[in-house]
Amino acid sequence: MKRRDFLKYIGIGGAGTGLGYLFGKVTQSPGNKLIPYLIPPEDIIPGVGAYYATFCTECSAGCGILVKVMDGRARKIEGNPRHPVNKGKLCMRGQAGVQGLYNPDRIKAPMKRSGERGTGQFVEISWDDAVSTLAKNLTELNKKPEQLYLLTSDMRRRGHQHTVASSFMSGFGSPNIIRHDLLGPGNLEFANHASMGLSAIPHYDIENTRYLLSFGADFSSAWLSPVSYGHAYGQMRQGGNGRGKLVQVEPRMSLTGANADEWVAARPGTEGVLSLSIAYAIIEKGLSRAGDAGSWRSALGAYRPSEAAKTVDVSEERIYSLAKEFAQARPSLAISGGNLEGYENGPSCHMAVSVLNHVAGNIGIKGGVIPSPEALASAPHPMTGPKNSLSRFAADAEAGRIKTLIVSGSNPVFTAPKAAKVEDALAKIPFIASFSSYIDETTAYADIILPPHHPLEDWGDEFSEPGAGFAPATVMQPVVSPLYDTKGLGDIFIMVGKAVGGKTAARMPSAEFKDYLRGSWKEMYAKNRAMAAGAPTFDEFWIRTLSEGGWWGAESVKPRCAAVSVHAVKEHLSKSVAAEFEGDEKAYPFYLMLYPQAAMRDGSGALSPWLQEMPDPMTSVVWGSWVEINGKTAASLGISEGDVVSIESPFGKITAQAYLAPGIRPDTIAVPIGQGHRQYGRYAKDRGANPIEILPFKENPKTGQIAVNSTRVKVTKIGNGRLVKQEGAARELGRDIVKTMTPAEFERIKG
To answer: Considering all CA atoms of the chain, what is the largest pairwise distance in Å, rounded to the nearest integer?
Structure first.
């Protein structure tokens, strides 16, 4: 090798990174990973970091982040202090995002299947071969374009990457975009739209409320935007507005419940009934702030506290007490999520909480429910529903209506119950292309893989929902040069679309995706003159936007008014709001509650060793699965902590180790979601159990959302064991470690 080429190879990666990837793509050699700079580029100082603003894609919250890049490598991720969603804070998932970039099991180049479907055996091919193979397959569908399906997730329906994907499908002539997201807020979206006419999730102003009543919304861990709401909760408790109160209603104590002033252990599936009963009690006692209280008293007659108490397993006195406190505290706020989202009748449960907020006068006020303004994006924002549900996908595949499938950002083989028969559906599809960075359980069924860049290498944008009371717009920019032979996600759709030709090519942007993104923001800039503040030209605005990470001018938007009417929700509340669980009570005596663990969420975090090693905040368990059982229940079954138990539903069986949890109802057990992968890399594969497998396949008919809290189970000890956890003894054993005091004593000390 010539000396000139040697110096070029060891420096070129840093040059591309130092310029924020704005000056074109660069070619790397493995040498630049091993040999330090001898003659560094002018904009690189070895050992000195540079920071680039982008946003986190580990969940759908859209938190702004700053990535520290040193010597051409991303070293650390922190929250962007200027971003209105997370205000400089960041969760464990966001911090671990850098491990996804450097994960040794990333797909490094296009691949085609070399073994049986599902085995994950592939060989590398060139991009020309990959694009031409997929384009040729699509060209053969020209006479029946509706036989092309796109399977994606709810997370990828905002921003201009979604716009390009939608344009690709519509240009080809197929309306078949299937959205599957196990933890998506589809039920909440439908409920807000049906009850209040809102097309976007509103801003729940936790920071400024004085009384927060949460029905299963674990905002400290995995609900909607946990970093944003965690910060807001801290302000509610310790900020200038005084000390607010939190009451958490749920059958299994979550991290949020552990931080609450009161924990109400309602029977699983009855949280909506409790909400309506509290609303009725507020009206009955003359505490309602709604102008139509008389109509609501008649509509809620079936939910009198005396009757609801039997269903909910919460005393009548407690219901009246909660109603009085909630109505008299100003402002107050009720939120719903997690458990309620996981019931088959999730929309009805969410609407029950909207009714409670309406009756208490909490909609459209500071410290209450604030309807979000319309997002700045011109991209479509479709709601989930039966037309794009997983059941429809499975039925169409079974009937032979799907000839080609493109998978992007979704893994239903792992995140859907066995009863959904997703693997059978995939087996019936003649050709499957996956746009994935990892060989997960669904990608293992693909015939060809076109791997996208990691988000830290790619361009994109995000319009956070829920926002921060206004409409933040965030830009994703590459912070490092691509490590492998991958392409930007938007560019993959553009490349394939142009290769197909015809109307599909005509709908694709003429330039690369980064130029299309910049042009789209230029159009937004022209339409929203508030963006121009301090930036008289678009070029100046664009540079400032990349530097700060986005645009969020609160002064340019106003929240809309909303209210809940009896007419709007009557249809949805006419039937019992209590959720149903499959399985005979005698044969299957326990309710099974599944929940997303903070690090694993829907299982996408399992590829990170940092997250695997992160102790669960409630149990301290690492590198595995567990089942939470009430101590008294465990004793009656002869189960000790760490024992291996069988958890059997009418639809399947898994095994896990027992964790004796004091914060769970005796008639309920709980298992975290996220482990049990059969593929997805060395850190995730064959670790723990996947409880989703033993669920019935129950979708809400209005939203298509899968019910993860929908079955009863029986528990049987099958062996002894020991949990891998970092928790010590849960009892004091007479050592007087924990000091307690009454609320009155605390207030005296505080004063």
So the answer is: 87
